[in-house]
Amino acid sequence: MLNLIKFPRVFTINQVPKVFHEDGIISGYRHPRSSATDCILSLFQRTNETLNIWTHFLPSWYFLWKLLTVVLMQAVWQDSFTWPLVVFLLSCCVYPLASSCAHTFSTMSLRARHICFFFDYGALSFYSLGSAIVYSAYIFPDKWVNGLFHHWYIPIAVVNAFISTIMACYSRLGFPFLHYNQDVVKRFHECPKPKFSKFLRGVAFIYPYMFDNIPLFYRVFLCVGEGCTDNETTVLHYQHISLAFLTGFLFVSHLPERLAPGSFDFIGHSHQLFHVCAIVCTHLQMQAVEQDMVTRRPWLSVNSTPVTFAGSLGSTLLCVAMNLLIILIFSLPLLSASVCQDGKHGNEPKASNKSCHCS
Ligand SMILES: [Zn+2]
């Protein structure tokens, strides 16, 4: 059956525009102006993106199944205590799905690549807000519950989500209309300063993660004496924190392909390992959160302020609406871009195109 399907050609690094290059990856590049059909076909083809797509596509269905079991098995709409878990599980479905879609369709054109990854960044910042909402409800150590930091924790996390999305989108091309326009001639970040761009993107995701984890780090690493909530979930928290740091390390290090360029093009490069670690980390985080939720419920029901709509579903809706608006604003100049970046789909990609910088 697969013999009857004509898979699109793949290319080496020298045959595709610089903006599509990945450190240490030499072969397996898809055509930089692939059709949507070719992008979908590439899921079943050996390219350097195939495992990037599957390592997030399949887990998104696993988290959707977890979300549905919670929604269908528990009376969530009558029980506001479960709303943070629902929000968190929703964010766990969205970020791998957005990532797999971004990796699938990012080779349709240069502008599609940017827009795809804008959505990926928005989904990641939504996940960081989902983590904050669930931590606020179930993770805070006893002695911090209802304190000043607890009171401001979610509002700050919402603001962090906006800043994170803006920073990550900015890291690709700068600000829309100011640094790039429909001709995409003024942009300078993605091409001349790829390291700064990557650094900025790393900061955009690491700083909300560090903020979200302040109560957890305090609880498991610093707190001593009464009110530290030292329960059986602590081991699970250690495990997902360790994996989170490994995930971050893989993202920034580009290991192992940096040591042997071309050897890990299809299997085993850092972005695949980064995806797998992120999913295992999220799975452990979910288990820890659920365990804390169940074991601490009697104490939290008596001592903590009840979960509000504004502090859970309301913040989520605000975050989603604002992130979509931010993505739209950053995408507007690209949506009205000239055909310069989106020329006709030919057999041979052009490695450089002087009239379109970096493409
Ligand atoms: Zn990815």
Automatic annotation (TrEMBL):
The UniProt entry, under InterPro entries, shows: AdipoR/HlyIII-related
Record Pfam families = HlyIII
Transmembrane residue ranges: 53-77, 83-105, 117-140, 152-178, 309-335
Q: Which GO CC annotations does the UniProt entry carry?
A: membrane
Which branch of life, at top level? Eukaryota
| Entry keyword Membrane | yes
Q: Where do the annotations place Zn(2+) binding?
A: H103, H271, H275
Query: Which membrane topology describes this protein?
Result: Multi-pass membrane protein
- Which is one GO molecular function term here? metal ion binding
Which key words are in the record?
A: Membrane, Metal-binding, Receptor, Transmembrane, Transmembrane helix, Zinc
Q: Does the keyword Acetylation apply?
A: no
State the compartments where it is located.
Membrane
Q: What is its main location?
A: membrane
> What's the family?
Belongs to the ADIPOR family.
Name of the featured protein: Membrane progestin receptor gamma
What organism is this sequence from? Austrofundulus limnaeus (Annual killifish)
Which gene underlies this protein? paqr5
